[in-house]
Amino acid sequence: MSLEPGTTCRIFTGARIPGGADAVVMQENVERDGETAVFTQRPKPGANVRRRGEDLAAGATAIAAGTRLRPSHVGLAASCDHAWLDVARRPTVTLIGTGDELRAPGLARTSGTAALSPSSIPESNGPALRAMAMRAGAMARIAPFAPDDRASMARAFDGALRGTDLLVTIGGVSVGDHDLVRPVLEELGASIDFWKVAIKPGKPLVVGRRGDAIVLGLPGNPVSAMVTFALFGVPLLRAMQGDEHPVTAPMRARLSRDVSHQPGRMDFVRVTVAREGELLVATPLPNQSSGAPMSMAGADALLCVEAERGSVKAGETAEIFWMDELCA
User: Fold this and answer.
1) Contacts of 243 (CB under 8 A, 6+ apart)
2) What is the Cα–Cα distance from 242 to 303, expressed in whole angstroms?
3) Across residues 9-23, what is the average pLDDT?
């Protein structure tokens, strides 16, 4: 079908443009008078016409290797007539909490507190870190707890290292009498790349490898465990899947209140974030203890105070990292 100059025809959304046509006018802007189409305004050449290649030229790359897929990428692939995509293998993650005091969450409700040791605590890090790992694309499982016994811990770690890409241990990486994770890993033949990082919360941290498995030893305090996994574990999982941009990019926000800081360690402060006009305004949460999961759950972002910087005054700016980006 081809149109002569000065003529028109009706087509539907998504249809091929008839030969000779150079514009499309939406039906809402057209009135019909017999066999004549009356436009509410003069049509402009090219209006409402989607030209071949204007969004993606022939031969161009639609989705580059190393792209972290979002639903929009899936839709783009389908629009390019691809029903399947080649993706990275999901890494396997094994999480092991260490410590004689640990018990599974929920036992107090099913067994009653009287039946439990008063020194026991529900293990909350495993479920939180498993959720973070899964959001980062991994297949994650929580292994049975490893007690504060060298031989038992060695058996637990050795078994886990044989069937996982990333072993995450929780607790036992500091310098106390029961901090056995690092020496046990070394006894099992793991090479330790580094131990301890100058950040707060989360100074005790072990990173190493045995064979093809990577080991990430996290501190046991709930906030320290989640912050270190967000800063080290999640980017590691992204990189293991070929992500070209594994590290979360920061933004800047203005402080609504003073933040006290002694130079020496990089501090990650839990904050809520509000928008005031074009500015992001960060408000520190009141309880910044490493054992305060309420403030972690209520945080919108982590505000970064550089190691060499002193206290940050209200009105000054600092970098923030969105929790949704850190934990996804």
Assistant:
1) 66, 68
2) 27
3) 91
